[in-house]
Amino acid sequence: MGESGTPTPPKLLPDEIHRAVEPGTALLRLQTTHSREGVLDGAWWPRSRDVATELPALIQALTVHLGPITRVGLDTAAWEEVPTRVVVDDRVVRLDSFPVGDDTVLITRGDKDHFALMVVPPSTSPDAARGAMARAVRADNVAQATEILIATPPRPATELEGRHDPYGGPP
Question: How far apart (Å, rounded) are the C-alpha atoms in residues 106 and 40?
Answer without folding.
Answer: 10
